[in-house]
Each structure stands twice: as C-alpha cells, then as structure tokens.
C-alpha cells in the first residue's frame, strides 16, 4: 500500500469517527415527530415543565405536561396519596430549587404525612435523609416511613426532554414522611436534606395552611 493511499485511509477513518455521532443525533432528531424542522433555528422557549430546574426569566411560563401530569396523578393514587395532586395557583407545590414536589398531605388530629416526589439529587436510602417541619419558629423532626424508586415511563421522559427539561432522570424517588404533630394552622416550612457522604442537597418547601 502506497504512503498516500495509507494517509487517505487514515484521514477517512478519523473523519468518520468524528462525524458519525453527529449524524446519528441528526437522524434521531429527524425521526422525532415533536421536533421542529431542522432548517429552522432553535426556538426561544416560552414554556417549560414545572419541575425543570434551570433558571428562567419571568416571561417563561411553567406548565404541567399532559403525560407527566397524568403519570404523577397515577403514582400518587397508587402509592396511597389520594386521587389528585396538590396544586397552588394551578401548579404543583415545589421546593424553591424545584427538586422536591409535595404531591399530597394526609392529616389526623395528631399526625401529618407528606407524600413527596424527588425529581433529582435525592436518592432512596432513608439513612441519608433528614427532614424537619418549622412552624412558628419551632422545629419538628420527621420520620421517613417509606422511600421507593419508581421508574419513569419512556413516553414521560421523552415528553420532558422535548418540553425543555435538560437531562431528567429515568426515575423518581417517592418519599413518605411523617410528623407526629397536629396539622399547623399557620404557614410552615418543610425542609428535606439528603447527604450520601459525597454530596449534600437541602430543599425547602413553603406550606400554606388554614
């Protein structure tokens, strides 16, 4: 084999190694029926899924994607949280960092049980959790009753990706948290921390009660 031929083959191999991944990505985008035409520039998003963690200006509207909302209602019902998810101003109740969603609350005269969805960062090892409820300046420690890893259906995952949620997990952590205190009659702050030794995440949710 001549030297020039060998160099051409090396160049061709390097070119294919660099270009093939991009070609595969473009091919997959072309197959996506929800994707915008490839000849158009990327649109400026005016709507995002309610739990997407990225910062956005006030002009961007947070929404409940249809399949995602139905799935959250389904798992809330199946896990004993009730038939409907909690909403405030037509959106789910979230922590400030959008990592923790309060899907449901059940109360007795002496207890409060919170049903939470962790969309990211929080794992499923109860030993790594610390939870508290702050009411009128008093801190009450909660008990983890159950934590489950619930896989996210592929259509829901794809819907979130298409709607602008960058790299959603393929599962959520379902958390049942109990406090042995009566339901507060004033605003309360729920704090949930997860520390696996390598990373610490703390999320806070403002709860408005009557």
Description:
The chain is α+β, with helices and mostly antiparallel strands. The chain folds into 2 domains: 1-43; 47-207, Immunoglobulin-like (Sandwich). 25% of the residues lie in helices and 34% in strands. The protein has helices spanning 3-31, 66-78, 154-163, and strands spanning 47-49, 61-63, 87-88, 91-94, 100-107, 112-118, 129-135, 138-141, 143-151, 171-179, 188-195, 200-207. A hairpin with a 4-residue loop joins β5 and β6 (112-118). The N and C termini lie far apart (84 Å).
Largest sheet: 6 strands, antiparallel
Order of helices and strands: HEEHEEEEEEEHEEE
What is the averaged pLDDT score?
87
Please state the structural category: alpha+beta
Spatial arrangement of strands, main beta sheet: 3-4-5-6-10-9
The number of domains is 2
Strand content: 25-35%
Q: Within the CATH hierarchy, at the fold level, what is the topology of the largest domain?
A: Immunoglobulin-like
CATH architecture term of the largest domain: Sandwich
CATH class of the largest domain: Mainly Beta
Work out the helix count. Answer: 3
Helix content: 10-25%
Number of separate strands: 12
Radius of gyration (Å): 23 Å
Enumerate the spans where pLDDT stays under 50 for 5 or more consecutive residues: none
Distance from N terminus to C terminus (CA atoms, Å) equals 84 Å
Overall outline? elongated
